[in-house]
Amino acid sequence: MQRKWMVVAGLAAGAVVAAGAVMLGAHKRFSGHINALGVALDAPAAYVATPSLTALSRDLVKAPVLRHLLTEDFAFYYETHEDRLGLAGAVKRVAFEHEATWRDDLLALALDQPSEAALWTDARGAARHWALAMTRDALARVIQGLGQLAASDAQLTLIADVPLATFAMETVPVYALQLSPRRTLAIASRGNRVVVLSDPGLLFDDERKPDRKAATVLGALLSGDAGNQALWRRHFGLTEPAGTAHTLVAGGDLLALGYQQFFPALQALRVDVTPGGAALNTWVRQGSDWPASPWAALPAKAAACAALPVNWVQARQVLTGAEGKRGAGDAGPALAEMARSFDGPAAICWYGASQLHTPLLVAHASGPAPSAATLQAFMQWWLPNQAAWSPGDKAAIVDAPYGAKRQGEDVGYEMAFRRAGDWWLFSPDAALVSRAEDAIARRYPSVADTLGAGAKTAIAVAAPNQVAELLRREALAVLPVEQADFRQAAETLLFPRLASFGKLAAAQAQPAGARDADGWTPLRWQPVGSAP
Q1: CA distance 329 to 288
Q2: Whose CA is closest to 308, among 319, 300, 299, 297?
Q3: Number of domains in the chain
Q4: Which of 237, 263, 505, 528 is most buried by its number of CB atoms within 10 A?
Q5: Cβ atoms 15, 7 nearer than 8 A
Q6: Mean pLDDT across the stretch 293-299?
Q7: Do residues 262 and 374 both lie within one domain?
Q8: Region Disordered: which residues (predicted)?
C-alpha cells in the first residue's frame, strides 16, 4: 500500500519536472558526450496523462489518501523548481536578445494544457529518464523557429536532422538545450506537436547518430494521427483516449523494483485523480485472473498484504533447470516435480514486528510433500554458500547487513522455507514462517479471520498504523545519530506525514468489476471486515 503511494508521488514528481522543462526557448549550448541510454522509447516503465501539468501536483495534494502523505510544499516545490525558474528566465533572455515576439505568458500557457509523459528507469532502477509529448500551437512555432537562433546563440545547439520513417524519410531538427551540467534536454517539433526528452541519449547513440527505433517512436509522437500518438497508452493497455482526470500508471517492473520475474502476471497499477483532487480511483492490470483466496495461510496483524497472480508455468522453469547445478546434484527431476506442485494462490505480507525487507511469502501447492532428500537438495541449491544450514534445521542463518537477527556480534537473517499442509512458506524472518504455520493449524488467527466475508475476494489489505510504524522504525535504523541533518529532516518532514497516514482506517481492496480485455480490473477500497 505504502509503496503504491510512493510510486504515485514519484510519477507525479517526474511529470511536473518534465513540465518545467517543456518551455525550451534556449538555455545553454550542448557540447558534451551523448550517452546512449539503451531504453525502449515505446515501452516506458511509467506513464502520466494530465489535462494540466500546472494542476497536477496541486490536485494530488488534495486527493484522498495522498492528502495524508503530501503537503502543499509538494506543489510549491515544483512551482519553484530551479529548472522551471531557469527556463522562465531563458525565455525572457532569448526573446530580449534576439528580439523575438514571444508572449510573456508562453510558459504558463504551455504548462496549463493536456500533456503525456513517459518515464524509464536508470541504472539504479529509479524513473529518472522521461519524455513529454503534447500538442501546442504557439510553442511548436517557437521551437520550429529555433534554427536561426541556434546558429548564433551560445546556449542552444542543433544535434541533427532526424529522419522520420513515418513520414517517408522527412527529417525534423532536434535541438539540445543544457540547463545545467547535470541536465541536457532534446527538443523536437513538427506541425503543432512538441516532444521533449530528458536526455539526448534517449534518441541518439554514443556517436550522435539517431537510433532507428527511437526515431520511429519520435515520428509517431510528432504525427498528426491520434492513433500513432497513443503508442504509450497502447503499451499499458489504455485503449480509451485520455480523459479529464490525471492518470498515473506504473508498470509491473517498476512496482516490483526490478524483480518482476517473480510476479510476471502483475503488469501495472493505475491511479486516476479527478480535477480538484475530489476522488482517487485505482485499477490493477494482470495477465491472468486472480487466484483463490490466500488469506487463510497468512497470520493476522499484518501491516500490508497483496495477493500475487503468479505465472507458475514461468516460475517452474527455474527449478526445472536446477539439475546439475551447485547443491542440486542429480535431484533435478525431483525438484522439477516439486515445482509442478505449485498450482494456485500466492501472497506477500509485511508485518510491523519484523522488517521492511523481510516479508512473508506463501504459495499454494498440491500433492504430497517432497521427500527429505528433495528438500535438502533444494536448500543446498537455493541458499547462499555462506548460509549456516544442515539437513533437519528449521532455519538457515545468513550473515548480512541490516539483518533482523544477531548471532554474537554478527548481524544476519534467520531464514526459513517450509511446507505446512498445502502451503509453501518463506521469509528471511523465520519467526513469520512459524507464525504462519500456527495460522494454518488454527493455533493463531489468520488474515482471513480479520477480513470476514471479504476474505473470498480481497486482493490487498493494509493497516496504515502498522505501515507507518514500520517505515518510521526502518528510517531510524538507517539514520544513525551521527547523521544529524538527515535525522532532523526525517523527524521534521517524514515522521509527521507518517503519523498522519497512520490515522487512516485499515482497508481491503476488492475487485469492483470484471477484468477487461486489456487486463485491467477496477478496485474498490473498503474497511477491513466489511462485506464485498
Answers
A1: 34
A2: 297
A3: 2
A4: 263
A5: no
A6: 93
A7: no
A8: 513-532
Quick one: pLDDT at residue 112?
75
Which of the four pLDDT bands, split at 50, 70 and 90, describes residue 31? very low
Domain encompassing residue 376:
295-463+506-511
**Collapsed DSSP state (helix, strand, coil) of residue 179:** strand
Residue recorded with cell 485499477: 283
Q: Which residue has the cell 466475508?
A: 453
CB 17 within 8 A of CB 9: no
Q: Does a structural domain hold residue 482?
A: no
Find all residues with CB under 8 Å of 151, minimum gap 6, and list them.
none
Q: Would residue 527 count as lying in a domain?
A: no
Q: Which three cell numbers stand for residue 276?
A: 480538484
Mean predicted lDDT score pLDDT of the chain: 80
Beta partners for residue 250, in sequence order: 46, 269
How is residue 438 annotated by DSSP?
Answer: H
Read out DSSP for 187-198?
A: EEEETTEEEEES
Helix residue ranges per DSSP H, 246-311:
252-255
Cα–Cα distance measured from residue 148 to residue 144, given in angstroms and rounded to the nearest whole number = 10
Those residues whose C-beta lies under 8 Å from the C-beta of residue 36, and which sit 6 or more positions away, are 201, 204, 205, 206, 211
In terms of domains, do 162 and 280 share one?
A: yes
- Kindly report, residue by residue over 378-432, the tens digit of the pLDDT: 887 777 777 888 877 888 888 877 776 555 557 788 899 999 999 999 999 999 9
CB count, 10 Å around CB of 526? Answer: 18
| Other C-beta atoms lying within 10 Å of the C-beta of residue 9 | 17
pLDDT above 70 for 449 = yes
